[in-house]
Amino acid sequence: MILFHILLALSAATFASADTLIDTLQQNGFSDFASIYQDADPSILSSIDVGSNFIIYATNNTQSAVNSTLSRRRTTSQSQRAAMSSVQNTASSSKKLRFKRQQANSPAAVYESLLSDPEIVNLGLGVNQSLVEKPVGDAGVPNVFAGAGQVVPIVGNDIPFDGGVIRPVASLLEIPGAVPSTLSLFPNLSNLTALLTQSNLTGPVSETAGITVLAPEDSAFAAVNISALTDEQIVGILSQHVIVNYVGYSPLLKDGQVLNTLANGTVTVAVRDSGVYFNGAKVTASDVIVENGVVHTVASLVGSGDGENPPATGTAGRVGLGLKTLGLGALGMAVAALF
Ligand SMILES: *[C@@H]1O[C@H](CO)[C@@H](O)[C@H](O)[C@H]1NC(C)=O
Ligand SMILES: *[C@@H]1O[C@H](CO)[C@@H](O)[C@H](O)[C@H]1NC(C)=O
Ligand SMILES: *[C@@H]1O[C@H](CO)[C@@H](O)[C@H](O)[C@H]1NC(C)=O
Ligand SMILES: *[C@@H]1O[C@H](CO)[C@@H](O)[C@H](O)[C@H]1NC(C)=O
Ligand SMILES: *[C@@H]1O[C@H](CO)[C@@H](O)[C@H](O)[C@H]1NC(C)=O
Ligand SMILES: *[C@@H]1O[C@H](CO)[C@@H](O)[C@H](O)[C@H]1NC(C)=O
Ligand SMILES: *[C@@H]1O[C@H](CO)[C@@H](O)[C@H](O)[C@H]1NC(C)=O
Ligand SMILES: *[C@@H]1O[C@H](CO)[C@@H](O)[C@H](O)[C@H]1NC(C)=O
After folding, report:
1. What CATH number should be reported for the domain holding residue 239?
2. What is the value of pTM for the model shown?
3. How does pLDDT run across 91-126, given as a tens digit for each residue?
4. For residue 289, is it within any domain?
5. Residue 290, class by beta-carbon neighbours within 10 Å (0-12 exposed, 13-18 middle, 19+ buried)?
């Protein structure tokens, strides 16, 4: 009991000695960034209570990216920007502990932000926009994965304030956009973009809440004679690339996980040293955050079978469309002929 009171007193003292978010930003060379919060809806700052364990992804004043990004994206309000940069670090909650156990030794994490504007967040009732933080490259430098395929390095140590920590990043986080506009930013997804339009799937893919899009790169389509397929078959193929009712941020994916697709089929996740695979199709760029979920680009088409065996180690090779994956009826013949 005495110990408890000492701990309580200590933690109270810790909070009392730390400054507010705005003061801490201003005192540490982040005053331009602080102005975003000062201009934002006051409810954002008041959500970041004393002792609430937030992470604030902030850019410092010498990063001209702050001002140039601000002027480039006038249409996005400061409130959205501030909300997207404020994530709840649930590390100390039981939710996070469960989550950590699932991930085994991966330091990657998914954090829910304060961005809840229903105009640009469509993840299901009461679910705010999230972002992914995970190590990148051989050095394992932690990076933040945000909207528009943005991957932002963390460039400094956490700076504590009374509601959590300020985590310095190299540029302001992009607000996640709709699927079509996000795909159009990737030059190697032009075939997918065209085919989604042709098959009238742009609407469902943009508007369905809480999805994971597996976006085949153009090279995946090069292996298939698309003009030999009917519209119906193309719809079948593309629908198999949309996982419904599940936002599969990479830190959440588990080996052997089976997920349902818009085509009413399933895809099975494989997590290997060489990467993550969906029915054998290897993920090339992961965790592109969009309004209604997440996009991962894949190197080959994702078949509808569930029996794929991605490589135990090493690279994928051409495993994306084994005969077993071709559960799309006549399409199976059309595509299999090309392999
Ligand atoms: C950003 O803009 C503010 C106000 O317009 C200005 O005071 C500040 O010096 C600018 N910072 C940079 C890095 O350009
Ligand atoms: C979602 O964002 C709102 C503010 O826009 C905040 O009040 C709420 O606590 C957030 N929810 C979660 C689960 O973070
Ligand atoms: C601002 O961040 C950059 C890295 O993005 C760093 O090189 C620079 O030293 C930082 N400036 C200050 C004043 O901390
Ligand atoms: C496709 O584009 C993305 C983003 O520009 C990139 O990360 C990925 O490596 C590209 N894929 C190939 C095969 O070049
Ligand atoms: C895929 O894109 C290439 C150019 O990047 C184009 O030549 C080809 O016709 C496209 N195929 C389909 C099926 O859209
Ligand atoms: C897409 O919609 C147009 C117009 O409603 C229709 O003519 C076309 O057949 C549709 N295509 C497919 C693949 O459903
Ligand atoms: C692709 O399919 C079309 C229509 O069936 C056919 O005319 C064309 O020769 C095929 N192209 C190749 C390279 O097989
Ligand atoms: C989807 O699957 C359910 C059962 O899993 C089945 O009842 C339904 O007919 C299927 N729909 C289509 C379009 O295949």
Report:
1. 2.30.180.10
2. 0.83
3. 644 344 344 433 333 479 999 999 999 999 999 999
4. yes
5. buried
